[in-house]
Amino acid sequence: MKEKDKVRIGCGAGFSGDRLEPAVILAEKGDLDYLVLECLAERTIALAQKRKAADPAQGYDTLLERRIELLLPLLKKNRIRLITNMGAANPIAAADKIIEIAKRQGISIKVAAVTGDDVLEQISGNEVAMETGNPISMSGQVVSANAYLGADAILPGLETGADIIITGRVADPSLFVAPLLYEFGWSPDDADIIAKGTVIGHLMECAGQITGGYFADPVKKPIGNMSILGHPFADVYPDGSATMSKVVGTGGNITLATAKEQLLYEVTNPHQYLTPDVSADFTTVYLKQDGKDRIKVTGGNGSKKPATLKVSIGYKAGFTGEGEITYAGANALERAQLAGEIIQQRLNRQFLALRIDYIGHTSVHPSSLANGYQPYEVRLRVASKAATADEAAIIGEEVEALYTNGPAGGGGVRKYVNEVIGIVSILIDRNKTQSSVIVKTYEYQTL
Amino acid sequence: MSIKLYDIAHSRAGDKGNTLILSLIPYEEKDYELLCNSVTADKVKEHFKDIIHGGIIRYELPNISALQFVCQQALAGGVTTSLVMDTHGKTLSYALLEMDLKLPKTT
């Protein structure tokens, strides 16, 4: 295979609920070699396992069908390969669904499903959770266990020549490192070059978070045309450097400031950013503005990949019940506080750890930061954990009853009951996982 | 003279389990040294005393003129099981930026 001198990778989604349109624009106008869609948060996969348990043909991303229907004709027309973790708990069923869509659209397609992240059968319950220091069985009934696979699990999918590679749990940057390994023939043992690929993947993986999303502040950090925020692409070179930009005409901005915020996002140790592929040192990265909405990324050293893989364990954590009601005008805060006290007295025997928040006053930052500020409207929020859905519903019922049994002028009640899946992590020997690739094809035949 | 961090720096919040991660990035690279000298891990701990219950490690990234604060036991148990409204702690970047900063006297 002739190695390319540049590979262009776009990131069209940074979480499962991300907007559909930016990926379509990237596929249409981005002149991409690869499109990556990162759609799998820790809890998303546990919820997907629940859907798979109820129906073996389910368990992939709930937006997969809508995303693929929009993208497939463009991927085919512009010869772009798609890499995505939308397989979630069931990459094989996801591949089947993509084949079904391709048949409907009359498009020949080859899909590679990457499996092996699901390690639930190996879990005894005695494994010690990193977060609690206790056996995971103490957290609750385990419902899912998914190891973070690396680029080495995705690479065989690319080698099949598939148009679409669909995975379950893989480390987010690995979705980007894999095509770079494939195109440039990088050695998986060259830690410095893998670290550079990992830096690029990390900057890209949250899509709109490097183009001004989760960044914009109209007073201090204004960003242009946010309603049509574009998602990024990276031009990556064989030496591991890259420039990042976005499709001309889309909204958003790529600046040193957006890139710096994203480089550090969710990084717990900038000297050792651990993935299944490498331990990357982000303190050795250089960023440079390289024109409007364009930055150059260089540097990034690495050291040997860890011997263990992180496994996300999903467990049943009961239910939460919530209720909300708003007070406005004179004494809004005092009336909301009276309502809070009433609820506390009505429920404190049944719910030991009731949470009472005053939205608009102290619900997300504590009073030590919100000194003396008097809001015009306040929304009371009451929340509690509960063992069952019926018990959780009582919270909302009591808040609703404040209409006629509470302070003056309460309005806009909303009630919620949610099942909770908790997540803890363990480490396992990487040799205990075995990934494999299953290929599905559809050949369009003209009659 | 006293200003808010908000006046000279920006920040992004991230989460890993019960750990809160806050970057602190000056708009002007010349202010990086001022932030290094003034915004210590201890000062952040005092500012967030009602939220952060564990230790704080501060990392310095001179290449990109940025600080990173990694704060343990900061998210009421973490995104998946916490009862708080902002389970990820995404609003807490702006809590950091509320910190008062005394400017050194210019001579």
How many strands appear in the DSSP assignment of chain B? 7
The biggest beta sheet of chain B is recorded as: 5 strands, antiparallel
Overall mean confidence score, pLDDT of chain B: 93
Oligomer: heterodimer
Which whole number gives the mean pLDDT of chain A?
A: 96
The helical percent of chain B reads 10-25%
Give an account of the 3D structure.
The complex is a heterodimer of chains A (447) and B (107). By secondary structure, chain A is an alpha+beta fold. Chain A folds into two domains: 7-120 and 148-307 and 430-442, no CATH class; 313-425, Alpha-Beta Plaits (2-Layer Sandwich). Chain A has helices at 21-29, 42-54, 64-77, 91-105, 151-159, 174-184, 191-204, 256-264, 332-347, 389-400, 402-405; strands at residues 7-13, 34-37, 81-84, 109-115, 142-147, 164-167, 232-236, 242-246, 273-274, 279-289, 295-303, 308-328, 355-359, 377-386, 411-429, 436-442. An eleven-stranded mixed β-sheet of chain A has the order 9-10-11-8-7-1-2-3-6-4-16, with helices on both faces. In chain A, β7 (232-236) and β8 form a beta hairpin. In chain A, α6 (174-184) crosses α7 (191-204). The longest helix of chain A has 16 residues, at 332-347. Chain B has 107 residues and is an alpha+beta fold. Chain B has one domain. Helices cover 21% and strands 30% of the residues of chain B. Chain B has four helices and seven strands. Chain B has helices at 5-8, 32-38, 41-47, 92-96, and strands at residues 2-4, 9-10, 13-16, 19-26, 56-61, 66-71, 100-102. In chain B, the strands form two sheets. In chain B, strands 2, 3, 4, 5 and 6 form a five-stranded antiparallel β-sheet that branches. Chain B has a two-stranded antiparallel ribbon with strand order 1-7. In chain B, β3 and β4 (19-26) form a beta hairpin. Chain B starts with a strand and ends in a 5-residue tail after the last strand. The model of chain B has no long low-confidence stretch (mean pLDDT 93). Chains A and B meet through α8, β10, β13, β14 and β15 of A and β3, β4, β5, β6 and α4 of B.
